[in-house]
Amino acid sequence: MKEASFWEAAGEQRVRCGLCRFRCLIAEGRRGICGVRENRQGVLYTLVYGRSVAENVDPIEKKPLFHFYPASLSFSVATVGCNFRCLHCQNYQISQLPRDHQQAIAGYPLEPAEIVRRARASGCRSIAYTYTEPTVFFEYAYDTAVLAHQAGLKNIFVTNGYTTPEALAAIAPYLNGANVDLKGFSEEFYREVVGATLHGVLDTLREYRRLGIWIEVTTLIIPGRNDRPGELRKLAGFIADELGGDTPWHVTAFYPTYKLRDVPPTPVASLRKARKIGLEAGLRYVYTGNIPGEPGENTLCPGCGEVLIERRGFRLGQVRLDHGRCTGCGLPVPGVGLEERIG
Question: How far are the Cα atoms of 110, 270, 328 from residue 26, in angstroms, in the given order?
Answer without folding.
Answer: 28, 42, 58
